[in-house]
Fold this protein.
Amino acid sequence: MQTTVYEKLKQCESCVRRVTDFIPRVAVVLGSGLGDYADTIRVAAQVPYGDIEGFPVSTVPGHDGRFIFGYVEDVPVVCMKGRVHYYEGYEISDVVLPIRLMKLLGAEILFLTNASGGVNTSFHAGDLMLITDHISCFAPNPLVGANIEQLGTRFPDMSHVYDPELQEIIRTAAGEKGISLQQGVYAQLTGPSFETPAEIRMLRTWGCDAVGMSTAVEAVAAAHMGMRICGISCVCNLAAGMTANPLSHREVQEAADRTAPVFKSLVTESVKRFGLLP
Ligand code: HPA
């Protein structure tokens, strides 16, 4: 018999629960460059994705896959070291399975991070961008198929995917830490090819500020479950056609690594403040 998406999710939940009873408050998805953020966590337990039956395992270099449970300051968190991308060939329901799982494990807040290409002409490589909204409709919607009633409603509202209060906390944290922060709309395309210059012009006309290959579908699944969501993107390069240079994964990785110290301190400062929320 074929297992349903929900059954698979519950199976993954029991696998994790066999290892740890840790209850996280905040779920953090670590994008490119934030991989070693785990070093700043007081670790309580780790669960490699490969140990979770049915869990999609990432194939991208630099996306070493595991859940890290522990504390950022005193806030209980679960971090995803390595996420699952649609371009790797997974069903979209598998791409968002980890997000759903972290909610089942107790996380109420989802903190998404990623690497992106800057579409806004005033952005520079190395900028951090607070995600205020997204365009997800170039990727398959993870809610297509029978609605999972246990998780959320059939037609969820997407008017405020990125929680205004969390956004304000991040802005304030950045301001007080002297970290400059852009803000804008993130568009998820499927990848894995980078965009063409024509696609980038289209995205700019449509109001996008940054483009990447993750995050928005995760936010859709999380919004369906009523999580409070926030996101920060590391703008690693200017998108196709905006400079004379061809784009490469290496360039993206190097830029992400350079920005990592500031990015990490903003994530920590923000999570600490989320911990003070009622
Ligand atoms: N396009 C899509 N995804 C990306 C880019 C880009 O230019 N840079 C980093 N991730």
In short: Strands lie at 26-30, 42-48, 66-72, 75-81, 109-118, 127-135, 182-188, 210-212, 228-238. The two ends are 44 Å apart (CA to CA).
